[in-house]
């Protein structure tokens, strides 16, 4: 399985930390010291999860190495839906005008992107598809309670589109060597740590410390496990892309893996926590930096204590 084209979309509205001082009393210094976030992007009026996903797809079309009509599978990924019936995947299908193909929507917290890619892997393995499109899009700001001092300041909005094929299409394709996802909902406060209940106040993180501990544990563990499947160690990685939730988590995981922060690719400082789209946006931003032979690993962790990792190389 190969990733041959990636593009992203982030809204134009910049929200600096200073915005929250009058809302929840948190200062810029406090937010930066605990999260690494300096600013984030919020969707404008009229933008939503579906429209941002479509914009990410459109940003990639001029680099697509095959006709749009060859797409034979679309998987949408999000935990912040605009419409629970006309899903992100169906909105993208409508925008592309590619009829009569499988369209799937998956929601598994911040692991949704990797779970969506795993769905593609299954379709490819069964011979049911050859050219797939995965779109991850999050409209966190519409669900967030900005007065919440624990999590209201974390969230950013954005989307990524990732085109995959069962075989190599271009020399710059990234080969997916291993992909593992899992859930640890039996651990700690997994079912209470991060919540999004639309009829009960939106996104909340009442047990941030527990989330932090398990995120550090499972992102490091799954990284080592995935690399071991290929007979590799963290020393064999050129770049590491951790879930864009908190810079302290990224540093902790990098330290456990004995990776330098120069190897850690991140955008949380200026985009905030963009949920399941975050790692994909990072990949899109750094696509041209990846050289032949480079190995990268993407590790994620989300609410319900879903987690996973994907190892790929150029």
Question: How would you characterize the overall build of this protein?
Answer:
Helix content is 30%, strand content 25%. The chain has 314 residues and is of the alpha+beta class. It starts with a strand and ends with a strand.
Salient structural properties:
314 residues, alpha+beta, Peroxisomal Thiolase, Chain A, domain 1, 2 domains, nine-stranded mixed beta sheet, 10 helices, globular
SSE pattern: EEHHEHEHEHEHEEEEHEHHHEE
Provide a count of the helices: 10
The residue fraction in helices comes out at: 25-40%
Q: Return the CATH class of the largest domain.
A: Alpha Beta
Strand content is 25-35%
Number of domains: 2
CATH fold call of the largest domain: Peroxisomal Thiolase, Chain A, domain 1
The CATH architecture term of the largest domain is 3-Layer(aba) Sandwich
Strand order, main sheet: write it out.
5-4-6-7-1-8-13-12-11
Distance between the termini: 12 Å
- Regions with pLDDT < 50 over 5+ consecutive residues? none
Rg = 18 Å
Layout of helices and strands, plus pairs?
Blueprint: E1 2-9, E2 13-16, H1 21-24, H2 28-35, E3 39-42, H3 49-60, E4 73-77, H4 88-96, E5 103-106, H5 112-125, E6 131-139, H6 140-143, E7 157-165, E8 174-183, E9 195-197, E10 202-204, H7 208-229, E11 239-242, H8 247-256, H9 268-271, H10 278-285, E12 295-302, E13 306-313
Parallel strand pairs: 4-5, 4-6, 11-12
Antiparallel strand pairs: 1-7, 1-8, 2-3, 6-7, 8-13, 9-10, 12-13
Helix pairs in contact: 3-4, 7-8
């Amino acid at each position: 399985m190969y990733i041959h084209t990636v593009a992203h979309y982030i809204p134009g509205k910049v929200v600096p930390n200073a915005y929250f001082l009058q809302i929840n009393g948190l200062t810029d210094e406090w937010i930066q010291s605990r999260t690494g976030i300096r600013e984030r992007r919020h969707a404008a009026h009229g933008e939503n999860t579906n429209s941002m996903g479509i914009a990410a797809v459109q940003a990639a079309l001029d680099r697509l190495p095959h006709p749009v009509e060859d797409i034979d599978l679309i998987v949408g990924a999000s935990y912040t839906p605009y419409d629970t019936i006309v899903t992100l995947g169906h909105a993208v299908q409508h925008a592309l005008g590619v009829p009569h193909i499988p369209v799937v929507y998956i929601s598994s917290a911040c692991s949704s992107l990797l779970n969506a890619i795993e769905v593609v892997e299954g379709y490819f393995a069964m011979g049911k598809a050859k050219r797939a499109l995965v779109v991850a899009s999050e409209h966190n700001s519409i669900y967030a309670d900005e007065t919440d001092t624990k999590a209201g300041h974390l969230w950013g909005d954005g989307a990524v589109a990732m085109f995959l094929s069962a075989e190599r299409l271009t020399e710059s394709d990234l080969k997916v060597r291993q992909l593992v996802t899992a859930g640890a909902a039996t651990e700690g406060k997994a079912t209470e740590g991060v919540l999004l209940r639309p009829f009960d106040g939106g996104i909340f993180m009442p047990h941030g410390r527990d989330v932090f501990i398990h995120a550090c544990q499972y992102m490091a563990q799954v990284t080592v496990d995935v690399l071991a499947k290929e007979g590799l160690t963290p020393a064999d990685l050129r770049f590491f892309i951790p879930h864009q939730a908190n810079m302290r988590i990224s540093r902790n995981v990098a330290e456990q893996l004995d990776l330098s922060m120069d190897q850690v690719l991140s955008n949380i400082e200026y985009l905030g926590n963009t949920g399941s789209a975050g790692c994909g946006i990072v990949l899109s931003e750094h696509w041209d930096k990846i050289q032949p032979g480079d190995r990268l690993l993407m590790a994620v962790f989300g609410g319900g204590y879903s987690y996973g990792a994907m190892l790929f190389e150029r």
